[in-house]
Amino acid sequence: MKNAKVSRIVTIILVVLTVLIGVLTLVVYIQKREAQAQLTAVPESSGAQPAPRPQGQAGARSATVVRVRPVELGSIENYVTVNGDVLTRSQVAVYPTVAGKISEVRVRIGDYVRQGQIVAAVDPSRPGDSYSHSPVTAPISGTVLSVPVNPGDTVSTQTAVCTVGSLSDVVVETFIPERFAAAVRRGLPAAVFFEAIPQEVFAAEIDEVSPVLDPASRTLRIRLRFLQRDDRIIPGMFSTVHIVTNTRSGVPLIPRESVISTYGSWIVFTVDENNIAHRREIQLGLENEDFIEVTEGLEDGELVVSAGQNFLSDNETVRIVD
After folding, report:
1. Which of 88, 190, 211, 311 could form a disulfide with 243 if both were Cys (CB 3.0 to 4.6 A apart)?
2. pTM beyond 0.70, yes or no
3. Locate the Multidrug resistance protein MdtA-like barrel-sandwich hybrid domain: which residues (predicted)?
């Protein structure tokens, strides 16, 4: 009885495994057929025709359909994309020298004040005692960014009466993930984008780099200065920053989708004048969202398969479509 039960369980397991293998085989076959169908689908309006094949070549009907791109020399950049906030480089909070009640506020947000100008007054008097009002003065020249108090408010010497900053010198502050910290240094160029100013790019460069990482967030604080002043950029604006960490020119480039990663190696397929695909191992350099630099294994002008390469084998006949 026990042996019969075990035999029945083994039989069921084998049947289930056989069904699963059959389903997986069918799925792979369907995916390959769909990929080939997409490659062979050429829009009628474009007038594009498949590339001609050499006469007398056998197995033309069974050739794998591919698209190709030539290896081209060009420039490529590595960059880090982060978000940042616009701040004033020079910004201070203004505090009274005595505690008491605000008797007068002489400024509003947006006003320009000069160093030493009176911005408010504090009455330090207490019940039964009367003292002269104490003036609160701006320690620097600049624009009033905030006024968090009103007449009658009780303040201490740790209560900010207003905040003054220089709008003529704004910076972008952002934080770089630890894995990019070694590539960041003063003077690196950057491009800054603002949702509030769409379709415009503002040139900047790294001006300050913190000497230490934040142990909590594992990030590095940096500040960027703009190469040209623009009055539309104001403190508090949210930005997206592209920091260029490395640039190379005149190097062989191929599309990212051409590269196959396999067992720690990078593989592409090239196509010769007889429409034969050849498996090629390559070495990679810089990369961005669209292209990858090839440091070894390809020459300028060679045709690299950019679509359909996942179904190819070495020395296989292919049919090129546009």
Report:
1. 190
2. no
3. 91-160
In terms of Cα–Cα distance, which of 282, 228, 227, 288 is closest to 260?
282
Q: How long is the chain?
A: 322
| H or E stretch covering 40 | helix 2-40
- Options 2.40.50.100, 2.40.37.20, 2.60.40.10, 3.20.20.140; which CATH number does 91-165 get? 2.40.50.100
Distance spanning both ends of the chain, measured CA to CA: 66
DSSP-assigned beta bridge partners for residue 203: 191
Amino acid at 263: Y
Query: Which one, of 129, 137, 110, 148, lies nearest residue 235 by Cα?
Result: 110
| Statement: 44-75+249-320 belongs to CATH 2.60.200.30 | no
Segment 51-99, tens digit of pLDDT: 444 444 444 447 888 899 999 999 998 889 999 999 998 889 999 999 9
